[in-house]
Amino acid sequence: MTILVTGSSGHLGANLVRRLLKDNHSVRVLLREESNNSAVDGLEVEKVYGDLRDLSSVVAAVKGCDRIYHTAAKISTIYGDANFQQELYDCNVLGTRNILRAALETGVKRVVVTSSSAALGYKPGEPSNENTPFYPFNPTLPYEFTKVFVEHEALKAFADGLDVVIVQSWAIIGPNDFKPSRMGQILLDFANGKLPAYTTGGRDWVATKDLVNAHILAMEKGRSGQTYTISSEYLTLPEMMVIFEKVTGRKRPMLCLPIGLMASIGKVLDMIISPIAPNAPRYITAGGLKLLATNQTADCSKAKTELGYQPTSIEQAVIEAYQDFVHRGLIKNPKGVISLNPTPSQPTTTLVGSK
Ligand SMILES: NC(=O)c1ccc[n+]([C@@H]2O[C@H](COP(=O)([O-])OP(=O)(O)OC[C@H]3O[C@@H](n4cnc5c(N)ncnc54)[C@H](OP(=O)(O)O)[C@@H]3O)[C@@H](O)[C@H]2O)c1
């Protein structure tokens, strides 16, 4: 049985591919030739080159596969200009349509599509679950809209007869983060003593290991046409800093700016930078801070009941992320958790010098 994974150069995909290989599956990956694909270097996978926006390359990638994990997406917390928004829509929404059409045409048995908590609604003080309706008239990032439409594409394909399950991810933390992700970059900066400040606010986070497990459980046990929301635990940013201190052996920055103030700074930066460089990726964005400011929590009881999903801890995910960064030489003079295992994908945990 050949399994296609899209997004394997990304954070989730890199971890999912390693787990599938460990489980002795034959894995094909869809890569873009011009991208940094170091996440799959040295792995025994079949590489197929193409782009989700190009239907013919998608059909070629899908042909002969029994199952697909469609994790790929363009992620962004900026508004960007019209071209940027078109690219988001084309990669995420039309790209998903292409994968699902190709799966239907070539007789793929089951597809798991990765969505996001961004596609969920939010009621202050209440955990969000699969039934919390997305409300489109709140300020919403273009990326968030695309993830809602990704789910619509999946449900349209289900109506057309495709066996498809949706997994909604919350903010991801863990190893094999090659780009790296926003939280991965914050951990790197923290560990290298370069994080100038942090903020308050919080949300649910998901460990890569848990998210990978959930994808596999969804493939094995998920009900077709259903959505499962997946997180590990809720943490505020100050609580995350406590974990970072413990894991890295470094002190957190002295400066903690309240989330309201940070959100205002994010808005001002957006106003200054957007007219000059609307598509430039940046650390502090009003959209990213909005996600923390809502303190949105997750209710994963459907995944626990139907899939047998069991979340682990974010602290362990931070340890694994840190060990992997240390192994890849990205942290100078590491002081905290040292792994004795030279394989970044399967770290062992040895706490050195932490309280
Ligand atoms: N990261 C989070 O905290 C988070 C939270 C909620 C939901 N999610 C969802 O989880 C999934 C995985 O996220 P991630 O963090 O692993 O993302 P990531 O690290 O940014 O990786 C994105 C992947 O998608 C691929 N991709 C994007 N556009 C493509 C296109 N047009 N054709 C082919 N491949 C394309 C990228 O390939 P290139 O290397 O070629 O660019 C990369 O492999 C996504 O569906 C995302 O929406 C993530």
From TrEMBL:
Residues 3-230 form the NAD-dependent epimerase/dehydratase domain. GO terms for molecular function: aldehyde dehydrogenase (NAD+) activity. It comes from the Bacteria. Pfam families: Epimerase. Gene3D superfamilies: NAD(P)-binding Rossmann-like Domain (3.40.50.720). CDD domains: AR_FR_like_1_SDR_e. This is SDR family oxidoreductase. GO terms for cellular component: cytoplasm.
